[in-house]
């Protein structure tokens, strides 16, 4: 009886831990300026950090967090960076900002998502003088799945 109960606990633990694994893979489509999910994953929140620094060594801008605020409808699995859906709250430096989101020119950003309890996944993107993404570390789901470390440049695509 005790062995059967131990086996049952072991099976429950395996099922729970394996079901909690969430794939958070995503990539950035340079042509459409869109953060794209790999698979059925949706974006409840995206953390966007400008890695660039000013000549004085200070951070160029505070971190930005996009948080889905609709409890009825699911979040999208693709987010066009030029037109963030209205159902996302945009937090800048921890404060809710009602301004439209724009990437800064000539900057490097780290975009990360940990989903709902999944393993955090990060990509880097680089912007040109107009704030358009021109380079990324993840160009498609194949590069994200392989954790490819190449930098994809829009001029070479």
Written overview of the protein:
- 15% of the residues lie in helices and 31% in strands.
- By secondary structure, it is an alpha+beta fold.
- The chain has a single domain (22-156), classed as Sandwich (Immunoglobulin-like), CATH 2.60.40.
- A hairpin with a 7-residue loop joins strand 8 (108-113) and strand 9.
- Residues 4-22 have low confidence and may be disordered.
What secondary-structure arrangement, pairings included, does this model have?
Elements: H1 2-19, E1 26-29, E2 34-37, E3 45-50, E4 64-68, E5 78-80, E6 88-92, E7 95-97, E8 108-113, E9 121-127, E10 133-136, H2 141-145, E11 152-153
Antiparallel strand pairs: 1-2, 2-5, 3-4, 3-8, 4-6, 6-7, 8-9, 9-10, 10-11
Q: Termini, distance in Å?
A: 63 Å
Helicity level, as a percent range?
10-25%
In this structure, how is the largest beta sheet organized? 8 strands, antiparallel
Low-pLDDT segments, ≥5 res: 4-22
Average residue pLDDT: 79
Percentage of β-strand residues? 25-35%
Rg calculated over all Cα atoms: 19 Å
Question: Which fold name fills CATH's third level, the topology?
Answer: Immunoglobulin-like
Number of spatially distinct domains: 1
Q: Write out the strand line-up for the largest beta sheet, numbering strands in chain order.
A: 7-6-4-3-8-9-10-11
Output the number of helix runs: 2
Structural class: alpha+beta
User: CATH first level: which class?
Assistant: Mainly Beta
CATH architecture title: Sandwich
Number of strands: 11
Order of helical and strand elements: HEEEEEEEEEEHE
**In one word, what is the shape?**
globular
């Amino acid at each position: 009886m005790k062995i059967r109960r131990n086996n049952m606990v072991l099976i429950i633990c395996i099922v729970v831990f394996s079901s909690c694994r969430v794939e958070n893979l995503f990539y950035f489509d340079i042509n459409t300026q869109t953060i794209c999910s790999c698979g059925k994953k949706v974006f409840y929140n995206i953390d966007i950090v400008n890695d660039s620094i000013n000549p004085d060594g200070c951070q160029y801008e505070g971190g930005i967090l996009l948080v889905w605020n609709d409890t009825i409808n699911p979040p999208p699995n693709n987010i066009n960076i030029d037109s963030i859906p209205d159902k996302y709250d945009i937090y800048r430096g921890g404060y809710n900002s009602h301004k439209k989101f724009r990437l800064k020119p000539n900057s490097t950003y780290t975009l990360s998502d940990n989903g709902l309890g999944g393993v955090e996944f990060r990509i880097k993107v680089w912007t040109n003088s107009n704030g358009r993404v021109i380079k990324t570390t993840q160009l498609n789901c194949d590069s994200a799945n392989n954790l490819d470390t190449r930098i994809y440049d829009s001029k070479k695509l």
